[in-house]
């Protein structure tokens, strides 16, 4: 499969601080990738760099062969990147439906399609962003990224701080998006085993550099690597 | 620039139709405004003035209430619109509708050309930039007395009968009906614009511009687009003033005009379209009552009331409007409708 998104020797950070150092990996069309690592190793910074919210200090980011490093965040979205931020970033003064329709673009993912994926959002379509639970906000953040009809979906800790039952529901939806819909995605997640089960490949970051790249299935079985870089044992 | 309005994807159209429904209170307000033309003939002049203030405040609401652009410079667009309509009347034709269009276009042009200055910096920068732009236009109008009449005002403005039938008399009979019709059209246009993906994206930008950009909203083009639309509205307000007064002076470009707009919006509340109407009505009524009671000190009392009002809570008028909407919905359409209103924007 052709590589859709490629990071080549990307260094980036905030202000003068450098967080990512020469990070390189590629994502193929229809491929789902888990981006793993301990806290503070640069997972969120990687996604923020792809969407254009950090200061890129070096390297190239290619989307469909085109370098997007100089584009503004809105141009990167236009080029085909959908971003689900860590803190969800719901617009509080907009209703559920307005949050979605504000950004919707023509394509397979319509208002009805995201309501089909998250029926709870349709039930709460007239509620404002600040009236939603954490799980509903996360569903809305994913729905809002989907209606952009992106080529690549970036999900930053989509299950963080949510009840187990909601986590299950969200993981099922993400599984559907990447497995059934075949959307290319990078998922940053603390629950490594759960996300390895629904992704094809995994990249582990350590102190701002790529420490491991391999198939998700292989990593899931490699307790030594999991223990060394993620601090988790076989039962986690 | 406003592609979000024209390219609504599947499913969005139905959502937009639902969002664009008229409320009971809104309909009632328009019935009362029309009824005032029949039953308050001696108040037509002040009513026309109230509508003019309401349009000026509406222009400010579009940019401040919906996009978060603070401005002390609406008088620039208002004044340029007023002078453009006056010059058009004096040198081309006094036909009011075309003069209104000229005023709106002039206001929009000023806003579009100066809008780029707003893209850098935050609130304080924007306040200073808009204030500065208004001051520049004021001085240009003052210096170009061969064109504007300078401190003496523009002479020779005449407004032809509306549709060739209705004369603009000294009692404000045609002026009020005309102004009300213009306000109605402007509100309808604003409703359509704001209940669209474009309108929602403005509120998203107001909430968090950086995040809005990262979810694909073209922040700068949309800010310029709404600032231009606000400028067109202010220009129309200015043109309307010139046409109904048949005179325009430097007052139209003064800081006081911008301050009036902001004061009215503060009283009426931002972000629900009718803040300008409610604010203008309250402001003019208070002004009228106070100037009758204490002709020398009415501005003192207005200032004091404004301070008290802001300290007590600017959200109260909007909350009051919402509470009345819910009551009316209950009255007219039962509990189901009241639930719907209660779920709508606070």
TrEMBL record, chain A:
PROSITE patterns reported in the protein's UniProt record: ABC_TRANSPORTER_1, ABC_TRANSPORTER_2
Family statement drawn from the similarity comment of this UniProt entry: Belongs to the ABC transporter superfamily.
Organism ancestry: Bacteria, Pseudomonadati, Pseudomonadota, Alphaproteobacteria, Hyphomicrobiales
Superkingdom of the source species: Bacteria
Positions in coiled-coil regions: none
SUPFAM superfamilies in the record: P-loop containing nucleoside triphosphate hydrolases (SSF52540)
Source organism: Shinella fusca
Chain ranges of the ABC transporter domain: 5-232
Keyword ATP-binding on entry: yes
GO biological-process terms attached to the record: L-amino acid transport
A Pfam family reported for this protein in Swiss-Prot or TrEMBL: ABC_tran
Keyword field: Amino-acid transport, ATP-binding, Nucleotide-binding, Transport
InterPro entries: AAA+_ATPase, ABC_transporter-like_ATP-bd, ABC_transporter-like_CS, BCAA_Transport_ATP-bd_LivF, P-loop_NTPase
Key word DNA-binding present: no
Protein name: Branched-chain amino acid transport system ATP-binding protein
GO MF: ATP binding; ATP hydrolysis activity; branched-chain amino acid transmembrane transporter activity
């Amino acid at each position: 499969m052709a590589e859709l998104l490629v990071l080549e020797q990307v260094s980036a950070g905030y202000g003068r601080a450098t967080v990512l150092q020469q990070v390189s990996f590629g994502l193929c069309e229809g491929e789902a990738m888990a981006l793993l690592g301990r806290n503070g190793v640069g997972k969120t910074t990687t996604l923020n760099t792809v969407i254009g919210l950090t200061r890129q200090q070096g390297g190239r980011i290619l989307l469909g062969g085109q370098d997007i490093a100089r584009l503004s965040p809105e141009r990167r979205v236009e080029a085909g990147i959908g971003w689900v931020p860590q803190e969800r970033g719901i617009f509080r003064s907009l209703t559920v439906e307005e949050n979605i329709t504000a950004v919707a673009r023509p394509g397979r993912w319509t208002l009805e399609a995201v309501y089909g994926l998250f029926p709870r959002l349709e039930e709460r379509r007239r509620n404002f962003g600040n009236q939603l639970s954490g799980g509903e906000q996360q569903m809305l953040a994913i729905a809002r990224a989907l209606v952009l009809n992106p080529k690549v979906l970036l999900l930053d800790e989509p299950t963080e701080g949510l009840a187990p039952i909601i986590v299950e529901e969200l993981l099922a939806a993400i599984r559907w998006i990447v497995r059934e819909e075949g959307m290319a995605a990078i998922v940053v997640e603390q629950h490594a085993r759960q996300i390895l089960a629904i992704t094809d490949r995994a990249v582990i970051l350590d102190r701002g550099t790529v420490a491991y790249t391999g198939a998700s299935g292989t990593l899931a079985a490699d307790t030594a690597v999991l223990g060394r870089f993620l601090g988790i044992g076989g039962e986690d | 620039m406003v592609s979000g309005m024209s390219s609504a994807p599947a499913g969005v159209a139905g959502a937009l139709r639902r969002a664009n429904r008229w409320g009971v209170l809104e309909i009632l307000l328009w019935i009362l405004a029309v009824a005032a033309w029949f039953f308050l003939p001696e108040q037509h002049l002040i009513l026309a003035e109230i509508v003019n203030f309401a349009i000026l405040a509406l222009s400010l609401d579009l940019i401040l209430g919906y996009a978060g652009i603070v401005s002390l410079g609406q008088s620039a667009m208002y004044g340029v619109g007023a002078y453009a309509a006056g010059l058009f009347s004096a040198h081309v034709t006094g036909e009011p509708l075309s003069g209104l269009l000229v005023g709106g276009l002039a206001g929009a042009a000023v806003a579009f050309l100066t809008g780029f200055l707003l893209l850098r910096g935050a609130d304080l920068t924007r306040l200073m930039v808009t204030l500065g732009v208004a001051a520049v236009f004021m001085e240009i109008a003052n210096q170009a007395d061969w064109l504007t009449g300078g401190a003496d005002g523009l002479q020779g403005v005449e407004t032809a009968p509306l549709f060739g039938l209705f004369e603009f008399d000294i009692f404000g009979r045609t002026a009020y009906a005309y102004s009300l019709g213009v306000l109605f059209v402007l509100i309808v246009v604003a409703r359509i614009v704001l209940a669209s993906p474009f309108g929602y994206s403005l509120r998203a930008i107001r909430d968090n511009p950086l995040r809005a950009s990262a979810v694909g909203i073209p922040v700068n083009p949309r800010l310029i687009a709404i600032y231009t639309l606000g400028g067109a509205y202010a220009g129309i307000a200015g043109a309307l003033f010139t046409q109904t007064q048949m005179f325009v002076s430097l007052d139209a470009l003064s800081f006081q005009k911008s301050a009036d707009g902001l004061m009215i919006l503060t009283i009426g509340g931002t972000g629900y379209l009718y803040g300008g109407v409610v604010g203008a009505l309250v402001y003019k009524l208070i002004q009228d009552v106070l100037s009758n009671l204490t002709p020398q000190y009415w501005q003192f009392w207005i200032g004091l009331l404004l301070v008290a009002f802001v300290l007590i809570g600017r959200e109260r008028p909007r909350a009051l409007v919402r509470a009345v909407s819910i009551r009316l919905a209950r009255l007219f359409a039962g509990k189901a409708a009241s639930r719907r209103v209660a779920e709508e924007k606070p």
